[in-house]
Amino acid sequence: MQEFLDIAVEAAREAGGILLAEMDRPRQISYKGEGSTDLVTQADQRSEAAIVARLRSRFPQHLIVAEEGSGDAPAAQGSREGVARYRWYVDPLDGTTNFAHGYPCFAVSIGLAEVDSDGHEELLCGVVFNPVSGELFTAMRGEGAYLNQKRIRVSNIHTLSASLLATGFPQQKRTESPNINYYWRFTLASHGVRRDGSAALDLCAVACGRFEGFWEFGLKPWDTAAGLLMVREAGGMVTGMNGKPYAMGGREILASNGQVHAEMQLLAADIAERAPFPPAVPR
Hints:
The protein is of the alpha+beta class. 32% of the residues lie in helices and 25% in strands. The strands form three sheets. A seven-stranded mixed sheet has the order 3-4-5-6-7-8-9, sandwiched between helices. β10, α4 and β11 form a beta-alpha-beta unit. α1 runs antiparallel to α2 (42-58).
């Protein structure tokens, strides 16, 4: 596993350098589909190309699932020799909206999963790199989680009322998201809720004890693969809102230091029962 992690770190650092260079240039921004608010920049594409090229050169038989589509096409995912063994999840720029506005909260996220014959995935290693701060989060299965090579662990706070939480909101179908209800209730029940715009960094913040909990709806596997391994290896817990095991790409994710997990889960269930749908948009 160490070789996998080492190459992922190299790829993340190279991609981070590209993002920093792109910050000093006029940003070329486009949208993912007509009427979409989901941004993509030249930086996303250049970063992803560098990561995919490095992974393919070292692990040509591995499957690569990348956000901007330069990895393996869906048709190839069932036919490539060796695909049943290893699968990389690549987010070349987690926090694109932040990047596009010059807000320095974004990261490169790379996770590797081992896939068994039944299609079950088990994460092996993960890297999340914030090129602005220089913070490099790494984790390997069974080996713990680290920030710049120093072991990290989740916080010891054991009540929701004393917790600082994080969440995010979708770029697409915003009026269909129920999260505004959760944001309100969790804000009242805790020290506060932060919305920094990078799920990968939010999960890492749970892993190193900056946040006690994180939840979000509609995330993709490349958003969560590396970060959820960080949380688990740092002693935290990751499930769905209902407490069942979280599968990458699941409808919702609930991550915590473990001690406030049950309390967050109970509150989430109450919110879902009382306000399962978003409030009407004022006209």
